[in-house]
């Protein structure tokens, strides 16, 4: 009987791990040093984040439909309220724009990832940024 309970418990734990393996985790803290590097987006853009609050963008999607931003800019890490898609975001502004864009931090499959939402986050109109390795 004890072996049967262990087998059932092991199966339940295994299924729980499988079920949560693909889930996104909210990120509460992001050290600036962990975001320095080259980020590629699923919307064919690149964001090269440098130390000291600067970046260079290549074809990142902007809030204006159909436009992409390219060039240097400024970034800052922001703490967000409870109604935000994530507790922490990377806010970026191209030098030739007055518009700040928010990229929301999550962990996906254990990797720090940024999501850029357009419109209602529930509509899944999103660019996903992941850091290029190597």
TrEMBL record:
Domain of life, per lineage: Bacteria
Region (Disordered): 61-89
Record-given protein name: Lipoprotein
The species this protein was found in: Dactylosporangium salmoneum
């Amino acid at each position: 009987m004890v072996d049967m309970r262990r087998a059932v418990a092991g199966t339940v734990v295994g299924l729980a791990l499988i079920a949560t393996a693909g889930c996104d985790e909210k990120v509460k803290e992001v050290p600036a040093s962990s975001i320095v590097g080259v980020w590629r987006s699923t919307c064919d853009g690149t964001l090269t984040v440098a130390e000291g609050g600067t970046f260079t963008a290549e074809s990142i999607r902007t809030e204006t439909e159909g436009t992409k931003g390219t060039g240097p800019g400024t970034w800052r890490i922001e703490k967000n309220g409870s109604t935000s898609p994530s507790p922490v975001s990377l806010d970026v502004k191209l030098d030739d724009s007055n518009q700040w864009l928010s990229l929301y931090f999550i962990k996906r499959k254990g990797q720090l990832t940024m999501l850029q939402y357009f419109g209602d986050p529930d509509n899944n109109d999103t660019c996903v940024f992941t850091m290029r390795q190597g």
